[in-house]
Every structure is written in structure tokens, then in C-alpha cells.
Amino acid sequence: MKLIECPRDAMQGLHDFIPTATKTAYLNALLQVGFDTLDFGSFVSPKAIPQLRDTAEVLAGLDLTNTKTKLLAIVANLRGAETAAQHPEISYLGFPLSVSETFQRRNTNQSTPEALADVAAMHALCERNGKTLVVYLSMGFGNPYGDAWSPEIVTDFTRQLAALGVRIVALSDTVGTSSAATIAPLFSALIPAYPQIEFGAHLHTTPGTWREKVAAAYEAGCRRFDGALGGFGGCPMAADELTGNMATENLVAFLAEQGVPTGLNMAAFHEAQLLSQPVFAGH
Questions:
Q1: Is the pLDDT at 241 greater than 60, yes or no?
Q2: 2-280 has which fold?
Q3: CA–CA separation, 274 and 229 (whole Å)
Q4: What is the pLDDT of residue 280?
């Protein structure tokens, strides 16, 4: 079981800039919890995501001496990937590839073919630099733009990623449109069809729907889940203001009910929870 904590996703849409020292202290607390991976920042245009303009400074302040947690940085293009790849502390580069052409253009200012070409180049870059590319299939469960969506379209994108050699693919519920009825069939079909790929679930949810979504993915064989403490953040394009990231505490509770060990230091977990409140206060 792999739990990926995503403070980057929780922070990126906040209007008020979180001071670098505050970000760094929070991330250092998260590094003590024992998550598999910390999605800590992004190397993207500061005009696009001003909240994360200090990612390089934050990275310099992280204490990686007593943690098993690996670092993941989000990139939006090859230039960002080249910058991130220069940092030996980073294990994973994450790229949002959308099955929605409209969202791809909004998110990375590219067409889908251009984005796929970037994926190929990023994968090669990661291979040369001892890193692993994580592709987030955004709008993986539907989208609000009217673009075509079907399980077959998601499967075709996955086939193309497999052909490029991509080893980690996270199906992403960018605006909270997923349900158990869409989650279960996709994971049930893809996981056995592509055993060389590690599939993850990056689910956004309202407070009342998280359990059915997690259960559907877990029961279909998914063993990699993204979350954010407190369920903070989420896509600003979501129509429902209650739609946020999957709350990590809910993931942990669900796994405990299943008798699945997480290996987390729960004292450190609760300390990070307390720290998260002032970080996100007023947002």
C-alpha cells in the first residue's frame, strides 16, 4: 500500500501566499509521518501558480536525513522537467496529461498530441537522471467541458503511455465527477491488462462521497492513493465548493477498517494535522 501526501495540491490554488518558512516547516513535519511519497511542490510558471513560486527555496529547506519518504514535483512542460531533474533529492516528476483536450490547453497550454510528445521526452529525461515519471490522467472519470469521455478513451491513453514505457499512472478525478460506478470498472479493467504499470487513484470528493470512491478503487485492486490532510485544496474549476482533495485521515481510517497496515507514525501524523490548521487557516 502506498499513500502519497499532496500538500502541493492543497496549497496551489490558495490566494494568499503562504510564507516559505511556513511551507517548509509543514513539509518537514509531513516527512516524519512515513508516507511513501510527498507531492511537495511544482516547477511551473510562477505566473500560472504564484503560490508555488518558492518551490526551489522550500526544497533547500527540507530535512531528508531521517525520512523514508520520497519527493515528487509536478511539472507542466519539458522545461520544468529539466529544472526539476537537476535536483538529486527529487525521485518523481509528475505530469498532468488530460483526456480532455480543453483541459489540457487550460492546464499546460498544449494540445493532447503535444502533451504526449512531452511525456515521451520527460520519460527519457527521467531515465537518464535516475528518476521516475508519474503521469496523472486528469479528467480520468469525466469532465465539465463536453469533451468526449469513455472508459475506452481512458484505456487508449493508457495504452499509449504503456508503449512509451511509463510505469506509474494515476487516474485523476480532477473536478470530483467520479463515482463508484466509474471508478470500479476502470481499475478492474486496467490493472490486470497492464501489469507493468502501477495504477494510482487521485480522487477529489465531497465529504459525503469519499468512502464509496475509496472502496471502489481499493476493491478493484488499486493500492496507490493520493490524499491531503484535512481534504484541503482541490481543483478551482470544480463546480461544488465542497469538492476537495481526498482527506488523508479518511484514507487512513478506511485502511484501518480493512486491517491494512500503513506503516505511518501516527504521533507524527497527528502533529502534522495540528500544523495544517494554521497553514490553511482562513482559506
A1: no
A2: TIM Barrel (3.20.20)
A3: 10
A4: 86
pTM of whole model > 0.90? yes
> For 1-54, what is each residue's pLDDT tens digit?
999 999 999 999 888 999 999 999 999 999 999 999 999 999 999 998 999 999
Least confident of 67-76, 176-185, 192-201, 265-274: 176-185
- Sign of the torsion angle spanned by Cα atoms 15, 16, 20, 23: negative
**Cα–Cα distance list, 27 to 123, 171, 262, 272 (Å):** 27, 25, 19, 9
Residue whose C-alpha is closest to residue 124's, from 56, 78, 170, 71 = 78
pLDDT at 234: 62
Closest by Cα among 123, 121, 96, 120 to 109 = 96
